[in-house]
């Protein structure tokens, strides 16, 4: 659940969008780290992942500059108001905007030539929902026992429901045109950050933050939506209504998921105050960088997993295990490295006044790691239309979280809230693994030792360097080098990474020979 989102950019009309996907190959008994895939299929999925990941990471990095800026300009109490409003808004955000994305992307992957009409129908239904959701948000916000500033920030945050109604990045992801979606993320965050730097100078300007977010999201969304419809579309609300009806269980599941982290933030705001919300949510913005990778992985593999479902569980399992292994390669160093250096990260980025947030930050990072793995599992549930199963899973995790949080926060504070969030993510992961196992899709645990060994090696080095007082940037660089080296020695580099490395070497080689390389083709793969 992003606290500042925006996805979009210029692209060709859907009639010209390539929809050729990954080649589905059967699982074989080789010694590779993950189930094999044809070179064309691996290259296509790798291109999807790295095209979208580059945009996701760059946009998050740009937005993170705004986070650090706001955290220092607004102080923990002011930043806590922004965090409280974002968590409160999440309930309406999932209901009014995001519930269409996964099912809509799946529908576009199945019917690529109807992409514009599918998008048009979804926009119409989303706008209708946005109007109702904004009215409900305003009414509930004004009834809160909070200062007027808090109420106004929550209400202004509701403007994002309109901009998100026009977000069509899910269409491009369903068409596997992730470069456009990635560029759109960057555009939205550049607009947002520019507005923050120009118009927010201190706590007195706090009402300008949600307005800046809305402007950035609107600019990014329109940059994708306008080109999508330049050749026309059938504006039939029934197309969107059909997807909404197919999404109802997913919508409820997402709402139940808001009873994890967002619910905890709201309860912290009610039981402890805005300052504690700021201490809790500021470091969590780093977790959002990691979650953007998880989203990238999920949407990049969703079309391939959806097509594999038509050919049997064995091919779904092959594609699933590839995505899980890549997820493990990504998250193992992120979780280990961040947990070890949490105190230094919080102090250097947000300032010493946020140091109390370091302890809960460690638990939040661990929880994000479990959520990272779950993002790969969700593709299987989506491909098999097991949305009701996800609903049951989220209900179980939400029940545990809601039952514990009112007891844990008064006694254990922010750390207890974060630990409860991590426990809820463990429950989600365990139940979802059990669910896909019943579908005949099994996780191959034996390959996971490679990234775990590499991350453990990196962790030992980081603990040593931290004890010797190395600066944070040096620790990050050394940790990255150690992890990649250890993973390479374990022969654990995923095929998707090797595909991109091969393309990069070819690009450099052409430069070295004095020729201008076809870099556009490399980035478009």
Describe this structure in words.
The relative contact order is 0.13. The chain has helices at 39-96, 101-110, 115-142, 148-157, 160-165, 169-174, 178-199, 208-228, 237-246, 248-257, 261-271, 274-308, 313-340, 342-350, 358-383, 387-438, 449-467, 472-489, 495-512, 519-524. It contains 20 helices and no strands. It has one domain (34-443). The chain is globular, with a radius of gyration of 22 Å. The longest helix has 58 residues, at 39-96. The protein is 77% helix and 0% strand. The chain is mostly helical and 525 residues long. The two termini are 29 Å apart. Mean pLDDT is 79; it is low at 1-42 and 519-525.
Descriptive labels:
disordered N terminus; single chain; 0% strand; 525 residues; mainly alpha; disordered C terminus
Quick gist of this model?
The chain is 77% helix and 0% strand. It has 525 residues and is an all-alpha fold. Mean pLDDT is 79; it is low at 1-42 and 519-525.
Low-confidence stretches: 1-42, 519-525
Mean pLDDT: 79
User: What is the helix fraction of residues, given as a range?
Assistant: over 70%
Q: How big a fraction of the residues is strand?
A: under 5%
| Secondary structure tally, helices | 20
Number of domains: 1
Order of helices and strands: HHHHHHHHHHHHHHHHHHHH
Largest sheet, in brief, is: none
Rounded radius of gyration (Å): 22 Å
Oligomer: single chain
Shape: globular
